[in-house]
Fold this protein.
Amino acid sequence: MTHLYDDTGALARSLADAGLGRHAEQLLAALSEGSTGTEIFMILRLRLCDVIDDGAVPPEYKGEAAGLRDIVVDALK
């Protein structure tokens, strides 16, 4: 079972270590910006899409972000 918040934190740390601190900060902020779970997931979905769409992000991190995004999208259905 995936622990979305833990996995998002791990991805954020990896992105920060790769010099992609802006994405790392935005992912972590998404976990606290919303006032409801649905709102947090909607923000997180957007931020994960930003990671996926950024050409500077290495493919392995894009794949990880895509997997997390898919979990979020499924939860929002």
